[in-house]
Amino acid sequence: MSRHQPPVILSIAGSDSGAGAGIQADLKTISATGGYACTVLTAVTAQNTCGVLDVFPISSGHVAKQLDAVFTDFSVIAVKTGMLFNTDIIKIVAAKLCEYNPQWLVVDTVLASTSGKTLLQKKAINAMLDVLFPLADVVTPNLIEANILIGEEKNDYLDENQPELINKLQGLKTKAVLLKGGHSSDQENCTDVLILPDKIQTYSAPRVVTSNTHGTGCTLSAALASYLGQGFALEVAVEKSKRYLTEALRFSTSWRLGEGHGPVNHFFDF
To answer: Which of 81, 139, 152, 204 fits 147 for a cystine, CB–CB 3.0-4.6 Å?
Structure first.
């Protein structure tokens, strides 16, 4: 029996009662990709494949206690954040990350659900930009979130290769941006763009035609944290995460779980 010890990856995010996104998707993804998942819950949602019905945020004090509990007992090497919901939670998460200083931080910029439910209060966006982004090794917005982050709430930039959008994202106070292309108009391929201060790298895969797309952003960012925690360089970790998500989508195409956008198949390789 192998005695290999998996790297400890921490997800700080909200729950999903349908288990396709949020903490539940992160647990599945990290486990499937070779990490050991710990969790800190920021909010409880009433949610299924059709949308988010309600959100109950956890107090920032209890979020702090959860973070202390994990970091004082586990050697956390990589962290991903998902739904943080409000300014108080963002500030306490940032403070604890500075205190415990994990090697890697992936920030998934969860702003709203596909159905339009607010998952980050609008007044908390500046806190994310000013307090959390500078700590991150990579942030992972989709095209709609990227527009909001650069102040273009009319979604003027829906092409992941648009130079002006890339230039503005390079100006954010963070080390790298992985711009996800799932919302682009390209029906043939899905292209993600890794934006670094000195270079741009693209990752393209044929677009998988399926309604089972719930939790894809959570899954990609959790896989990225897992692979970074296993020692892969950022560019390689992005490539492996992209491949993992594409296969999880492909192996879910025959599923009919729920009445809306179903989950991906996190354990396709088992």
So the answer is: 152
CATH of the domain at 218: 3.40.1190.20
Q: Is 215 a catalytic residue?
A: yes
- Confidence (pTM): 0.94
> How many structural domains does the chain have?
1
**Integer Cα distance of 139 and 155 in angstroms:** 19
Active site residue 82: no
Does residue 180 have an active-site annotation? yes
How confident is the model over 142-177, as pLDDT tens digits?
988 898 898 876 665 566 568 888 899 999 999 999
Q: Which of 180, 182, 219, 229 is catalytic?
A: 180
Beta bridge partners of 202: 193
Given 14, 22, 215, 262, the catalytic residue: 215
Q: Which domain holds residue 95?
A: 8-250
Instruction: List the chain residues with pLDDT less than 70.
Output: 1-3, 113-117, 153-161
* Active site (annotated) includes residue 218: yes
116 assigned to active site? no
Q: What is the pLDDT of residue 119?
A: 81
Does residue 39 lie in a domain region? Answer: yes
